[in-house]
Predict the structure of DUF1801 domain-containing protein.
Amino acid sequence: MAETKTKATDVSVDAFLDGVANPVRRADGHALRAMMERVTGEPAVMWGPSIVGFGSYHYRYDSGHEGDACRIGYSPRSANLVLYVGGFDDYAALLGKLGKHKTSKACLYINKLADVDLGVLEEIVRRTYAATEGADRCTVC
């Protein structure tokens, strides 16, 4: 069985965010950290080399694959901010009010925080964090 590559680390979140080359993405990364720490009540922790995560849970699939994942997280990538928030079936109304964004199976892509309604984004973060309470399936896998 393959081992999960993305694990919590002792790498400094501040050092990671301060090292983001794009100044807007760097500032947005710090702003997301502050908002997510406030909403979740959890300290930011690096998961792997590039994901800033909050909280954790253990999952196990019927196949026997299991591991730990952050309950919610993000990464200030070079192309955009990527928020790992799980599925979007429950967020249709919120996404309609969010502003400029794209989605994939479990990711929300935002170019910059100035493009979105921060109150709506905060509600998505709040709901995602609550939805992972007691979860047994990885929402970002």
Q: What stands out?
A: The first strand starts at residue 44 and ends at 47. Helices lie at 13-18, 23-40, 92-98, 118-131. The radius of gyration is 14 Å.
